Amino acid sequence: MAAPFFFGYGSLVNTATHSYGGARPARLRGWRRAWVHTGLRDVAFLSAVPCADSAIDGLIAEVPGADWAALDEREFAYERLPATDQVQHDAAGAPEISVYAVAPEKQNGVTDRHPVLLSYLDVVLQGYLQVFGEAGVKEFIATTDGWEASVLNDRAAPRYPRHQVLSAQERDLFDSLIAETGARFLLG
User: Fold this and answer.
1) pTM, to two decimals
2) pLDDT at residue 47 greater than cutoff 90
3) CA 11 – CA 128 distance, rounded (Å)
């Protein structure tokens, strides 16, 4: 039996944050991204939210032996949902594909007490830049809701456990594009 896949639409697009094989670009129909907070985490993070008229780019990658334990632990604030029929991809065969999303009843608003970590956002944007180019980063921003969120600038002392080093060009591009969203920066 073929290994199942996950669809990643945030930090999982940055393959430096995981070692799942067979990663390839894909598109999830009927969903958008949003910045959300739950009582399960101190900070805000991305979730997929149903939206009939939208589609988001991301990656699919294999979950060897259908051993979801490590990925479920990483994504503990999410529910794993079936998405096979909603994902367009070029993987051989017809693998089972799941997506992680925060249940609507568990979502809270993003506040200064629960900001987006810039170190997390940097990882996400770096992944999109590497896979989809600058146009893909802009598309990510356009298909993500909640940019009125506060962003905690923690670059000097990253709180996100899988943070990555940015080049000067990446940092300048990301800062410029984030500023255009209207997101408000908090000092770390």
Assistant:
1) 0.95
2) yes
3) 9
